[in-house]
Design brief:
With about 220 residues, the chain is an all-alpha fold. The chain has 10 helices and no strands. The protein starts with 9 loop residues before the first helix and ends with a helix.
Length: about 220
């Protein structure tokens, strides 16, 4: 029933997805910022919107990338190289701008957003998240069974798995940050270290993607 839909490398994919999800990138930092400013309820609603945006993004990438990857192996390698290099760039940029990002996280404005606004804002952060775009386009395809067919369906399935994991992880971040909001908000250095850690993880993942591109080429 599920032949051709669930890739054989699903366990390995789960590990890669969890690594990129827990790295404090734009979506995680936005959720933490909302939690620090407005508490756990707003952060969880933001996560819900974020995950919905990520699923829309993953589906769009699957529909566009899937047929190309199935037809041309060179496109598969090119996507890996572009994605790996961009992940490294995002990681370096996150480390360089960690102070600016930390300041933005503690400056969310004087009025708490409504439930609808929280979901809407989270949705757009999810759709426009560069880390997620690179993951869906460059990292995720490595775990698809190209020769098995149904590449687009496999990509959509893996995108859905990613979003479920992201909801659990980001929701946990939001709940923890909402609980420890006073502790986080009183020291920007803690937020800076969080952002730098996320940058380092993205650099490591980018290097891993490039190594995979070299060995598979």
């Amino acid at each position: 029933m599920f032949a051709g839909v669930i890739p054989t490398r699903l366990p390995e994919y789960l590990v890669a997805a969890i690594i990129i999800i827990i790295a404090p990138g734009p979506s995680v930092l936005f959720v933490i910022a909302r939690a620090v400013a407005w508490g756990r309820k707003i952060s969880v609603l933001t996560v819900a919107g974020n995950v919905a945006g990520s699923f829309v993004l993953s589906t769009l990438v699957a529909l566009g990338v899937g047929p190309i990857l199935q037809k041309w192996h060179i496109a598969y390698i090119a996507v890996q190289w572009a994605g790996g290099l961009y992940l490294i760039y995002l990681g370096v940029d996150a480390i360089r701008k960690r102070r600016i990002h930390a300041a933005d996280m503690t400056n969310q404005g004087p009025v708490a957003p409504t439930a609808r606004q929280s979901i809407r804002d989270g949705f757009w952060v999810g759709v426009l998240n560069p880390k997620a775009i690179v993951f869906f386009a460059a990292v995720l395809p490595q775990f698809v069974d190209i020769d098995g067919g149904h590449v687009t369906i496999q990509l959509v399935f893996l995108g859905l798995v990613f979003c479920v994991l992201a909801f659990i992880s980001d929701g946990t971040w939001g709940l923890l940050a909402g609980t420890a909001r006073a502790w986080l908000a009183t020291d920007n250095k803690r937020l800076e270290r969080l952002r730098a850690t996320g940058g380092l993880i993205m650099i490591i993942l980018g290097v891993a993607v490039l190594i995979s591109a070299v060995t598979s080429g």
